[in-house]
């Protein structure tokens, strides 16, 4: 029996067999995006809302593919710069997508798109009070994450590094501390550029990974989605299996007893 | 008939005074589109479109699904 086989991810009481959440931006075409979603095997995809000119029919193919994918939709509040903006966009998303799920983003800085912890917490409190299932995109600050959990967030999404950088897990100490101190599901969101980085996050005990750019901007997005999916599965299995303790000195794995050619007199 | 001037997705727009949001969406060819609306930064639910009368200087945001991360 494979111990990882029945290892489902539970978010707000709903179970997911995939621990890979995929973004839907930056693909060269809707078809390429569709292939990536299928290759990823994901069950939840993020998407956004933007002003639309009625003459533009661009969104129709996009929307059809997402609907046909069967994935749960996780609308975001990307680009919002205050709690008020994020709350309004979340309300618009809930109506448009008929879902209480929201990836809550309140951006505090244009340079690194770092979440504004104060606006984020304010918006999270308000939206949870309105019945939303809030997945906050947050920094790796322990106190912020504790406050978000206390506000009612049943899962958190700390960054690995700034959006779109591909820098991986920038602050392992902070992320390890989050994992040790919080018992809600933690999904690494943003900054992952390589499957090895996703595997490391999963080996550290994170519950899932959300990414977009690394797949969408690969030369072959579907193949990269598959690579990430395998890395996430491998990392999760390794975490469940239990990694060995690291040590500074060598320790032979082959028994030393019975070593041939060895003599007590050193000869 | 008097007119009002407002902002539609940050572009100038004009409508007859007393126009409802439902009629404005029809005029602007959004009526059958998958969109959500906010006026002056506040969400307006679909159920309120008919009774919501637009005013001078209203800032109207009309959004639709796009790819997002």
Automatic annotation (TrEMBL), chain A:
CDD domains noted in UniProt: ThiG
Residue ranges constituting the Thiazole synthase ThiG domain according to the UniProt record: 11-255
State where the protein is found: Cytoplasm
Binding, 1-deoxy-D-xylulose 5-phosphate: 164, 190-191, 212-213
What Pfam families does the record tag this protein with? ThiG
The protein's annotated catalytic reaction(s) are: [ThiS sulfur-carrier protein]-C-terminal-Gly-aminoethanethioate + 2-iminoacetate + 1-deoxy-D-xylulose 5-phosphate = [ThiS sulfur-carrier protein]-C-terminal Gly-Gly + 2-[(2R,5Z)-2-carboxy-4-methylthiazol-5(2H)-ylidene]ethyl phosphate + 2 H2O + H(+)
Say which enzyme class the record assigns: transferase
Q: Major location, coarse class?
A: cytoplasm
So where's the catalytic machinery, residue-wise?
103 (schiff-base intermediate with dxp)
One GO BP annotation is:
thiamine diphosphate biosynthetic process
Q: What pathway is this protein said to act in by its record?
A: Cofactor biosynthesis; thiamine diphosphate biosynthesis
Gene Ontology cellular component terms for the protein in this record:
cytoplasm
Q: State its role.
A: Catalyzes the rearrangement of 1-deoxy-D-xylulose 5-phosphate (DXP) to produce the thiazole phosphate moiety of thiamine. Sulfur is provided by the thiocarboxylate moiety of the carrier protein ThiS. In vitro, sulfur can be provided by H(2)S.
Provide the family line: Belongs to the ThiG family.
Describe the subunit structure.
Homotetramer. Forms heterodimers with either ThiH or ThiS.
Name the record gives this protein: Thiazole synthase
Upper lineage: Bacteria, Pseudomonadati, Pseudomonadota, Gammaproteobacteria, Oceanospirillales
Automatic annotation (TrEMBL), chain B:
Q: Which Gene3D superfamilies match?
A: 3.10.20.30
What InterPro entries does the database record attribute to this sequence?
A: Beta-grasp_dom_sf, Mopterin_synth/thiamin_S_b, Thi_S, ThiS/MoaD-like
Pfam families in alphabetical order: ThiS
The lineage's top-level taxon is: Bacteria
Signal peptide feature range:
none
Q: Which PANTHER family match?
A: SULFUR CARRIER PROTEIN THIS
What name does this protein carry?
Sulfur carrier protein
**What organism, scientifically named, is this protein from?**
Halomonas daqiaonensis
């Amino acid at each position: 029996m494979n111990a990882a086989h029945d290892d489902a991810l539970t978010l707000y009481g709903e179970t997911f067999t995939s621990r890979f959440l995929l973004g839907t931006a930056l693909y060269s075409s809707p078809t390429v995006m569709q292939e990536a979603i299928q290759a990823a095997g994901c069950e939840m995809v993020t998407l956004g809302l933007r002003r639309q000119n009625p003459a533009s029919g661009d969104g129709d193919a996009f929307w059809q593919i997402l609907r046909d994918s069967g994935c749960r939709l996780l609308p975001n509040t990307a680009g919002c710069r205050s709690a008020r903006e994020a709350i309004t966009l979340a309300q618009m998303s809930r109506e448009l997508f008929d879902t209480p799920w929201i990836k809550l983003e309140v951006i505090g800085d244009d340079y690194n798109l770092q979440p504004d912890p104060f606006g984020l917490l304010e918006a999270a409190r308000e939206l949870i009070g309105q019945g939303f299932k809030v997945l906050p995109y947050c920094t790796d600050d322990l106190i912020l994450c504790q406050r978000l959990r206390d506000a009612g967030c049943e899962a958190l999404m700390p960054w690995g590094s700034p959006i779109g950088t591909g820098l991986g897990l920038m602050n392992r100490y902070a992320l390890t501390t989050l994992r040790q101190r919080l018992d809600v599901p933690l999904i690494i969101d943003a900054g992952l550029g390589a499957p090895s980085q996703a595997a490391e996050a999963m080996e550290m005990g994170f519950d899932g990974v959300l990414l977009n750019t690394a797949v969408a901007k690969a030369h072959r997005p579907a193949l990269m989605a598959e690579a990430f999916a395998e890395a996430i599965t491998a990392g999760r299995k390794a975490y469940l299996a239990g990694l060995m303790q690291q040590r500074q000195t060598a320790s032979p794995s082959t028994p030393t007893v019975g070593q041939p050619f060895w003599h007590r007199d050193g000869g | 008939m008097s007119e009002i001037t407002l902002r539609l997705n940050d572009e100038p727009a004009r409508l007859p005074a007393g126009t409802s949001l439902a009629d404005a969406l029809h005029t602007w060819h959004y009526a059958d589109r998958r969109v959500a609306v906010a006026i002056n930064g506040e969400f307006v639910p679909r159920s309120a479109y008919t009774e919501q009368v637009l005013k001078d200087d209203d800032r109207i945001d009309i959004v639709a699904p796009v790819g997002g991360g």
